[in-house]
UniProtKB/TrEMBL annotation:
Residues annotated as transmembrane: 86-105, 111-134
Domain of life: Bacteria
Record's keyword terms, sorted: Membrane, Transmembrane, Transmembrane helix
Species in which this protein is naturally found: Streptomyces malaysiensis
Region (Disordered): 54-77
Keyword flag Transmembrane helix: yes
Protein name per its UniProtKB record: Membrane protein
Taxon lineage: Bacteria, Bacillati, Actinomycetota, Actinomycetes, Kitasatosporales
C-alpha cells in the first residue's frame, strides 16, 4: 500500500494512532471513516480512468479511427463503418459494368441476369453481416495474433 499511495498510508497510520488514543469504543467509527476515504480514492481513480478512456475514444474518432469496430454500436452493424460499407457497394457497382458486358457478350440476356444475380447476392451477404472470416482475420491482425 505504501508504494502505491503514500497519502492513504498516512491516513491509515493516523487512524491506528487515533484508535490507540481513543480506545476500542471508537474503532467502528474510525474504520468507517478510513473506509470512506479508501472508497473515495477508488472512485476518484476509476473516474479518472473512465475520463481518460473517453478522451482516447474521442481522439480516435477525431483522427478517423474506428473505436467501435467490434460492432457494439448500433449504427455500425457487423463492425464495419459507413465508409467501408459504402466502399464495398461502390466497388461492386464499378465492377458490375465490365462483368455485365462480359455476361451479355457471352450469353446475352441470361448472362446479364446471372451476372446481376451474383452482384446482388454478394452485396446481400455483405449487408447481412456475412464474410465473418474476413472480420475475424482483421480482428486477429489488429490484436497481433
Amino acid at each position: 500500500m505504501d508504494a502505491r499511495d503514500p497519502d492513504l498510508k498516512k491516513e491509515l497510520d493516523a487512524a491506528l494512532q487515533t484508535r490507540k488514543e481513543l480506545g476500542a469504543e471508537y474503532e467502528s467509527e474510525l474504520v468507517d471513516s478510513f473506509m470512506e476515504k479508501v472508497e473515495q480514492r477508488f472512485n476518484d481513480t476509476a473516474d479518472r480512468h473512465v475520463r481518460r478512456q473517453l478522451a482516447e475514444q474521442q481522439m480516435a474518432t477525431a483522427r478517423g479511427a474506428r473505436p467501435y469496430a467490434t460492432g457494439t454500436q448500433p449504427d455500425q452493424s457487423h463492425g464495419l463503418g459507413v465508409g467501408e460499407r459504402f466502399a464495398f457497394v461502390g466497388v461492386s457497382l464499378v465492377l458490375a459494368i465490365p462483368l455485365s458486358a462480359i455476361g451479355v457478350v457471352n450469353e446475352g440476356l441470361p448472362g446479364l441476369l446471372i451476372t446481376w444475380a451474383g452482384i446482388f447476392g454478394v452485396n446481400a451477404v455483405h449487408a447481412m453481416g456475412g464474410f465473418s472470416w474476413l472480420r475475424r482475420s482483421r480482428k486477429e491482425e489488429e490484436s497481433g495474433v
